[in-house]
Every structure is written in structure tokens, then in C-alpha cells.
Amino acid sequence: MKTLRFGIIGGGLMGKEFASAAARWAHLLDMPARPEIVALASGREATFGWFQKNFPAIKQYTTDYRELLKNDDVDAVYVAVPHHLHEEMYCAAIEAGKHLMAEKPFGIDLKANRAILDCMAKHPKVFVRCSSEFPFFPAVQRIGEMIERNAFGKIIEVTSGFLHSSDLDPNKPINWKRRVEFNGEYGVMGDLGMHVCHVPFRAGWKPRDVRAVLSNIVTERPDGRGGRAPCTTWDNATLLCTASRAGEGEAPAEPSARDLKSGSAGASPSQSEQAFPITFKTQRIAPGQKNTWFIEILGTQTSARWSTANPKLLEVLHYTGGEQIWQHVQTGYDPAFKTITGPIFEFGFTDAMLQMWAGFLYELAQGKPLKKFAQCVTPEETALSHQLFTAALESQKDASTVRVG
User: Fold this and answer.
1) Strand duo 275-283 + 60-62: pairing
2) Fewer CB atoms near the end CB (10 Å): N or C, the chain?
3) Phi then psi dihedrals of residue 229, to 5 deg
4) In the chain, how long is the greatest CA-to-CA distance?
């Protein structure tokens, strides 16, 4: 098994999550590569202690990320920093020849995103992907397989959302995600948007236009010094788009025996030419939610819906005429990358993180992803998300429907 030596830039929560996933690597079976964390850069020395206690392989600790990038013992980096630092640090990592796992939104705005992609084009040997762990849940892997088989027939409507209540308490002190200079004008879309775009974009469902409703619900918060500070980013966003079906203008794949048995044969070419509505919902203030990602796909032959609120439960409806019956499927532990855990057990967030990192290292080592929906977000998909979010800002400003791209 090949060892890839990693540096982490950003010692916060997500840096710790990657380190924890690396420590669990023996949980995976038959992997071509494994990560070893050898360096950490963080602007706050206070974050060093946890890593020092748990990861003796880390030999370099620095408050200057440039020093980490000069380290010849580092093959790849994970950069988990606020959005305003993406362009500078991502480009520096790429120019240093370090393979890069980046965080969404992959640049604070469209201009920054394009600068990063331009830098990538000048260094084609550097492997770059962006994080989004939720498609690695077993139920979503099954949905991805259904998409690849054209099992849904003609797509009627798609809704993808990420709802949580982290900012529901108006007395929660302000943080960088509520400041436009750090988080960017996208607000919640930059913070959560790639999570809801990942599966639809991978399916090839490209938004043509968008009508956006953005909400700044809590307009000021405690500043941590006894005063109040204005909240300058959007709390919630609902984007209603017109989307094109995957494979527009192409003949569909041949239906499998499983499709024919279930009544889920592929769509005809004429069906693939039609557009359909797709809604993206991102909310940091969602009463009744904890941290809920969901997707619902309605089709003329098959429909499916799933939510992290009940992650084992995949609901599927095959329509062949007559009664409409939603089937409840218990998905169990059946991820893309096999592990020592048996299929009877439950799958959770930290498992999805491990699977996402398996997807990154597998593709880096093998030169191709294990399969279509077991691949991390590509830079091209981040570019589409920036086009969508930029159009959404324009739509909110004018209360109009805006072309994407």
C-alpha cells in the first residue's frame, strides 16, 4: 500500500476530522494508498496540543503555512480555512506541487474560483478535489446507481437540501461565517451549497436559470466583548432552478434485468430533452432540524427520497400503473469502499468522512475514481456552483429569474 504524506493547513474542526479519519485507515479494506499526517500549519498555536497528543508522526508544527508548503516530506495537503483565504492558499499549494484536498466553496467568489482553476491549468500534474461527504452515505450511493441506470424515467422534479439549526439561537456569539469579509456574499450558499449541489451536478443536472429567495433572519449577534455586531451574510437560501436532464440529446443506457423487473427501464431520447425544476435549499436557521441533508428525486417510473434524519431509510417508489406504494429499504452499512464493518450495522457521519477521504486517495493513487458517485467534488463542479450562487445573488437583488453562466 502506497503512503501519501499529508500536511494539514488549518487546525480547526475539519482538520481534526481528517486526522481522525487517517487514524482509522485500517478500517478500510483493499485500499491502494493510505495517508500519513506529517505536518500541521495553524494560525493559532493553541490548536497544536490535540495533534501533538494523538499524532506522533507529525514532525512539523508551524504558524506559517508557507513553511509547510516548503516541506519536501509533504506530498499532499488538506486546506480547511475560512473562505477569504482560499484563493491565496489553494494557489500557493498548487504552485508548490502539493496535491490538494480543498474545502468548499473553493474560493470566496466567482473571481477567486476562476483564479484557482487558472492556477490548476498551469500545473496539470497536481491532483485537486473539493470536500463533500454526504454522497458517500450508502443510501445516496444507491440513488447514484439508480441515476446511472436511468431508472427514474423522465425526471419530474428534484429537491436537494441541507438544513440545520446552528444559528437558531439569536444569542449565539457572531463568528466568521456571519461576516461577509470572511465568508463572502454567498453567505449560507458558500457554507453549505456544495453539499446540496454535489449529487445533482454529478448526475449532470445543470441549472439553466435561478430564482432565489435569500434571508438574513438574525441581523445582529453578541460580539463577544459585551456589545452587538451586525450579521452581514445570508442565513437561509432557497434556489428554484430550471435544469436539463443528464445526457441531454444522447441515447439512454440499455435497461438492466433489475430495471425491467421493477418497471424502471431507462428514459427514451425524447424524454431526455425536457427540462425540469430543481430546488436547492440551504439553511442555517431551520427549526426542528439538527444537521439534516436530504434529497428527493421524482420520476415517471421511479422516485426516491432520503434524509440524514433517518440515514438507514431509503424510500423508493416504482410506478408501473395502479397503486403508488413507497417501499422502505433499510440500507445498513454498505458503502462504496469496503470496510471491516458488517452490512447489518449503522453508518454515520464519521464513516462518510472516511469514505470521502478514501475516494480522494483512491483516485489520486489509481488515476480514476472507483465509480461515478464515489468521487469527491471536482473543480469544474465548484465552478458551476459559483455560477449558480452568483446568479442567485443577482436574482435576490432584482427579485428576478437570472440565467446561470
Assistant:
1) unpaired
2) N
3) -130, 140
4) 66
pLDDT(272) > 70 = no
Per residue in 38-66, pLDDT (tens digit) is 999 999 999 999 999 999 999 999 999 99
The Cα–Cα gap between 214 and 201 comes to: 21
The C-alpha cell 489553494 sits at 90
CB 334 within 8 A of CB 160: no
- 33: phi > 0 → left, psi -120 to 50 → alpha, else beta; which? beta
Peptide bond into 105 cis (omega under 30): yes
CA distance 101 to 9: 11
Query: How many angstroms separate the CA atoms of 142 and 334, rounded?
Result: 9
From 3.40.50.720, 3.90.1150.10, 3.10.450.10, 3.55.50.30, which CATH number describes the 2-130 domain? 3.40.50.720
Burial category of 49 from C-beta neighbours within 10 Å (exposed 0-12, middle 13-18, buried 19 and up): exposed
Tens of pLDDT, residue by residue over 118-166, are 999 999 999 999 999 999 999 999 999 999 999 999 999 999 999 999 9
Fold adopted by 135-336+377-403: Dihydrodipicolinate Reductase; domain 2 (3.30.360)
**pLDDT per residue over 292-342, tens digit each?**
999 999 999 999 999 999 999 999 999 999 999 999 999 999 999 999 999
What's the one-letter identity of residue 180? V
Task: Give domain limits for the chain.
Answer: 2-130, 135-336+377-403
Residues 6+ apart with CB under 8 A from 12: 42, 47, 80
Torsion of CA 62, 63, 69, 75, to 10 degrees: 50
**C-alpha distances in Å from residue 166, one per residue of 76, 169, 230, 253, 357:** 32, 8, 17, 42, 25
**Measured between alpha carbons, how far is 4 from 100 in angstroms, rounded to an integer?**
12
